[in-house]
Design a protein that fits this description.
8-stranded parallel β-barrel, 25 strands, alpha/beta, single chain, 6-stranded antiparallel beta sheet, hydrolase, 695 residues
């Protein structure tokens, strides 16, 4: 139980919400624009205004005055929509700060950016008006959510149905051809890799490469200009912002949500000695985590870590989220290295960090999807399962167990005659990872994934034993070494039809597991077609055909996509597959799924069958406990070794038949729903799954 003092601290609003920190950035009023900038260490801040066309021509400089709470401000008619501006900040060169009064800095709340050359940017004041009409957020319930993670440019760059002028753009993503694909799959929520304005690291440019993924944020408020059409870029930041909003509006009109992968844990300023573009020059000590001597505490592996133990840094992040969720109508966020955001003044993670609580409790963000990547690279950085109420988390334990079961365990069994473990751990993941997420948070705290942008694609996962990253310019040292992959007998491309068929079935097993598990499934764009990156498991620096989706598909790829469509439809039709809560023993829990487990003989699973690596077969029966939908019950057969087996359907009180819905053994999904009586023997081929509706 919390002490009265602790309870009061929890109940009190975090100091980051002080009114002193309201309305930072540029706001417009009858006397022109007001600029408000926070710095707790500066001695002087100056607004610098530029010519509309020559970004090196300073037309005016005005001092800002210090007010309450460390906020500096100025009101001037020079600030209007379209004004190009920067700030210059001076202060003492001590206490971890790096002031330089000659450096032109981006104002942190800039809604638009203009490039004045390499590592040289100007802020742009924008009006931001937009007609949303009657289109609102889809508000897809978590239990019906199916996330489709992809790169904004890569999704539409090569789509033949998208006009060339729109390829790889915000407008291209919302083109009817792309929307048709999303809707035909049945996904509900498009999760985009970073679209905040970002920069490429100098070391990549030296190798002729680029930061394609975008995890190197330049501005927390400006959409990345390079993703806009040439026409919008020509018109400037206001048009870029309109194009982004137009994309969101069209996707919403189609019932599709937009989730942004956001990088608040570090910035593109890198380590000390890197670019000084904004926060470092404004108040280095208060924006970045440091030792007493000014050396950075880097828990992100990217050179710096934003210090969310300070009010200003936390408020900057919260205000950015509010802007994207309200002004730009974004539906949710996936927080890169979210453990960094939850580190306190001692640099230790706490799930009750004021920023983490503010994000899920803030009324402006209410109803949004908040998804944590629950780790970073610092001490105590792995926090899967430890975030608080209101958060969902990427479940790396799910990813690893599912890959092990269908891939590395099978590889091991080929060499050692039996798999290393039984089926129990896999079953726990299938049923919602109750050993990772608390009873109170339930299965929807888990975002299940088998692949993501980071790592092997699905096809490469079943085609390569090791990474092939030489093209990244780091001598194959980058990228994960432990992939839990299995090439099934040949490394990479092969003409061996048996190997190819086995790989295709492995992909169907992985997709079937993902889309039939309790929790929130996340599908990586292109996996529905078996996209390959030729064994590169860290393709962050390739803006090329290697990473863009291809849309010309072989028959087997079209068959795989048909399996994905059928699995998503079956998930929607069978609420027993998507429980909202964990069932409680001996209690009736609304919107849960009551689970029963049987072996291949139709008998209740014994302890030995759970743990014995020679017995990797189970029948999983899940029955819904209706609250909002009709009663539903399914049976899923899982067979985890390469020897065929006969499985007897269990005899359950009140059950008269089992209706076949889907099998991973089929190259093409079948529409035939055959019926089988309890006690019927169903042959399963090696390493396969079979789904039934129980009636």
């Amino acid at each position: 139980m919390l002490s009265p003092e602790s309870a009061a601290a929890v109940a009190a609003p975090p100091t980051m919400l002080s009114a002193d920190l309201d309305d930072l950035g540029v706001t417009f009023g009858p006397d022109g624009g007001t600029l408000r900038v926070w710095s707790g260490s500066a001695d002087e801040i100056e607004l610098v205004v530029f010519d509309d066309t020559d970004l090196d021509w300073i037309t005016e400089s005005l001092p800002l005055e210090l007010g309450a709470g460390g906020v500096w401000s100025v009101t001037t008619s020079l600030l209007r929509a379209g004004t190009r501006y920067a700030i210059r900040v001076d202060g003492p060169l001590r206490d971890g700060n790096t002031f330089n009064r000659r450096t032109l800095l981006l104002e942190p709340y800039s809604r638009g950016l203009a490039s004045a050359g390499f590592e040289d940017w100007r802020s742009v004041a924008v009006d931001g008006s937009f007609d949303w009409g009657s289109v609102g957020k889809p508000r897809v319930p978590l239990d019906r959510t199916i996330i489709y993670e992809g790169h904004l440019k890569g999704l539409s760059k090569r789509h033949p149905g998208v006009p060339p002028a729109l390829h790889g753009t915000y407008a291209g993503l919302a083109h009817p051809a792309m929307i048709e694909h999303f809707l035909s799959l049945g996904v509900t929520s498009i999760e985009l890799l970073p679209v905040h304005a970002f920069a490429t690291e100098p070391r990549l440019l030296q190798h002729g490469l680029t930061n394609y993924w975008g995890y190197n944020t330049l501005s927390f408020f400006s959409p990345h200009g390079a993703y806009a059409t040439a026409e919008s870029r020509r018109q400037g930041p206001e048009a870029i912002l309109r194009e982004f909003k137009g994309m969101v509006k069209l996707l919403h009109a189609a019932g599709l949500e937009v989730i942004l992968d956001v990088v608040y844990n570090h910035t593109s300023e890198e380590g000390l000695g890197g670019p000084r573009s904004s926060l470092r020059g404004i108040d280095n000590r208060n924006y970045y985590r440091q030792h007493d001597d000014g050396a950075y505490i880097d828990v992100t592996g990217c050179g710096n870590s934003v210090d969310t133990a300070t009010d200003a840094a936390s408020r900057l992040i919260l205000d950015s989220l509010r802007y994207w969720a309200n002004d730009l109508q974004v539906d949710g966020f996936r927080f890169d290295l979210a453990a960094t955001l939850g580190r306190d003044a001692r640099h230790e993670f706490t799930p009750e960090h004021p920023l983490l609580r503010a994000i899920v409790d803030d009324p402006v963000l209410a109803g949004g999807k908040m998804i944590a990547e629950p780790w970073d690279v610092g001490m105590g950085g792995w926090q899967t399962g430890n975030f608080g109420d209101g958060w969902s988390e990427w479940n790396d334990r799910y990813r690893d167990r599912v890959r092990n079961f269908w891939l590395s365990d099978v590889d091991y069994a080929r060499r050692a005659s039996t798999a290393p473990v039984g089926i129990g751990g896999f079953a726990t993941r299938l049923a919602g990872s109750s050993n990772t997420f608390s009873l109170e948070r339930g299965p929807l705290a888990s975002v299940n994934f088998v692949t993501a942008h980071d790592g092997f694609t699905l096809r490469d996962l079943v085609s390569y034993d090791v990474k092939h990253n030489l093209g990244n310019g780091e001598h194959n040292r980058d990228g994960a070494d432990t992939n839990r992959s299995f090439n099934h007998g040949a490394e990479g491309p092969t003409d061996d039809e048996w190997i190819l068929a086995t790989r295709r079935k492995a992909m169907r097993n992985l997709l079937g597991t993902l889309l039939l598990s309790a929790g929130i499934p996340m599908l990586t764009a292109g996996d529905e077609f078996g996209r390959s990156q030729r064994g590169n498991n860290n393709a962050y620096c390739h803006d090329s055909a290697l990473t863009w989706l291809a849309w010309d598909h072989a028959p087997w790829q079209r068959d795989l996509a048909a399996h994905v469509r059928q699995l998503i439809r079956l998930r929607e039709e069978n609420p027993a597959l998507r429980p909202i809560r964990f069932a409680r023993l001996g209690e009736h829990t609304p919107s849960a799924s009551v689970m029963e487990w049987y072996d291949e003989n139709g008998e209740t699973m014994s302890i030995d069958r759970w743990t014995n690596p020679s017995h990797r077969t189970l029948q999983y029966v899940a029955a819904s406990t209706p609250e909002l939908e009709d009663f539903n019950r399914i049976l899923l057969m899982v067979h985890g070794n390469e020897r065929p087996i006969d499985v007897t359907l269990p005899e359950i009180d009140g059950v008269s038949r089992y209706v076949s819905l889907w099998s991973s053994a089929d190259e093409s999904p079948s529409d035939v729903q055959s019926e089988h009586a309890p006690g019927t023997v169903i042959p399963l081929m090696g390493t396969s799954m079979h789904l039934f509706r129980v009636e």
